[in-house]
From TrEMBL:
Family that this chain belongs to: Belongs to the ParA family.
Gene source species: Streptomyces aidingensis
Pfam families membership: AAA_31 (PF13614)
Phylogenetic classification of the source organism: Bacteria, Bacillati, Actinomycetota, Actinomycetes, Kitasatosporales
Name recorded for this polypeptide: Chromosome partitioning protein
Domain of life per record: Bacteria
CDD domains assigned: ParAB_family
Record function comment: May play a role in septum formation.
């Protein structure tokens, strides 16, 4: 893969949508692998108690493995739980174990409960180009921790009939967190997933999303692809499972767009064309 421009600062991308099954985890692991294959150092933080991102990256996450739960609740260092992904150089994962299911409630009485992930990331000393956070399908304290820790929200949208339902609530939460906890937070990227170009519905939904959001929507759509859905059962991303499949190529292209957009955002800040 051709190398892409590396960001000057670590870009922290929060992959969120409180709907389940829209492609959050698939997008997190495949974008992360794509960015790593493009020459970046990338950390995936699995913030879903299901641990699907850990599984998809072939990372051991049985109950005794040091995990993101220990970082959030037991003040373990992030460096103590991060594992390398074996078949992709430059890709790392902080796994989730099933005890994370209790974290939403256990976090409630804790000091600085919304910013524990932020603090852990701040204290992490390894150089990283990207951190991608795979959120659970809810807007609770785990997702809030992700939103406090980063600046960019990535929303995968499945091209189906109810695609836009619930997005209002997600966007209001982003506004709330920006207003009260993290002024840098914004929706930077919307990615259409499981796109089936043969159906009218998919193209209508895509058009509606593009009309509604405009420039945040990536030009690349992720096609519905059997190879994408098979890869996790081999503990692989589609990038290594079937590198020439349409699914792999679409995630590589989406990663390229994200990298290039980040660069033009940095340049326009340097040239003073963007305020703040
Ligand atoms: P979420 O994390 O939002 O719950 P997932 O990423 O786990 O969603 O995706 C839900 C299901 O859809 C999974 O079984 C996954 O393998 C499948 N899937 C995701 N993206 C695609 C795609 N582009 N083509 C085919 N299946 C997909
Ligand atoms: Mg998931």
């Amino acid at each position: 893969q051709g190398a892409l421009p590396r960001p000057e600062q670590t870009r922290i991308m929060i992959v969120a949508n409180q709907k389940g099954g829209v492609g959050k985890t698939t997008t997190t692991v495949n974008l992360a692998a794509s960015l790593a294959l493009h020459g970046n150092r990338v950390l995936v933080i699995d913030l879903d108690p299901q641990g699907n991102a850990s599984t998809a990256l072939g990372i051991d996450h049985h109950a005794d493995v040091p995990s993101i739960y220990d970082v959030l609740l037991e003040s373990k260092q992030l460096s103590e739980v991060v594992q390398p992904v074996v078949d992709v150089e430059g890709l790392f994962c902080a796994p989730a174990t099933i005890d994370l299911a209790g974290a939403e409630i256990e976090l409630v009485p804790m000091v600085a409960r919304e910013s524990r992930l932020h603090r852990a990331i701040e204290a992490y000393e390894q150089p990283l180009d990207y951190i991608l956070i795979d959120c659970p399908p809810s807007l609770g304290l785990l997702t809030v921790n992700a939103m406090v820790a980063g600046a960019e929200v990535v929303i995968p949208i499945q091209c189906e009939y109810y695609a836009l339902e619930g997005l209002g609530q997600l966007l209001r939460n982003v506004d709330l967190v920006r207003g009260h906890l993290n002024p840098r937070l914004h929706v930077s990227t919307i990615l259409l997933t499981m796109y089936d170009g043969r159906t009218r519905l998919a193209s209508q939904v895509a058009e509606e999303v593009r009309t509604h959001f405009g420039q945040e929507v990536l030009r690349t759509n992720i096609p519905r692809s059997v190879r994408i859905s098979e890869a996790p059962s081999y503990g692989q991303t589609v990038l290594t499972y079937d590198p020439n499949s349409s699914g792999a190529l679409s995630y590589l292209e989406a990663a390229r767009e994200i990298a290039l957009r980040g660069q033009s955002a940095q340049q326009s800040i340097q040239h003073g064309t963007v305020e703040g």
